[in-house]
Amino acid sequence: MADFPANLQYSREHEWVDDSTPAVVGITSVAADALGDVVYLELPEVGATIEAGSVVGEIESTKSVSELYSPVSGTVVEVNQTAVDDPALVNSDPFGTGWLFKVEVTGTGELLDAEGYAAFAG
Predict the structure, then answer these.
(1) Burial class for 104, CB neighbours closer than 10 Å (0-12, 13-18, 19+)
(2) pLDDT attached to residue 86
(3) Which residues pair with 74 in a beta bridge?
(4) For the whole model, what pTM was predicted?
(5) Are 120 and 112 in contact (CB under 8 A)?
């Protein structure tokens, strides 16, 4: 079973969010592994208002294009330009330098703790 950082919460769409202010959002190692080599990121724009559970971007890999869902509602305050410029960071460090965007959170969707996500992701 993969290890998932206990300080994060997870969506059933395989995104994670931390509890910082602003909150950091990324995709899990499960999603990164399933996607294969990530080659392009389309992230929400700074200033965009996003809703938990809604599509906020796309992740393109050598295998497919997948929609990116937000685990929280709020306003996007930063995107990870380093990951946009080097999408492979999402594969090599999905819980670290491969984060995707930061958001001032106004609400959350249905989130799982690390143990619940590990059971879900199996």
Answers:
(1) middle
(2) 98
(3) 50, 105
(4) 0.96
(5) yes
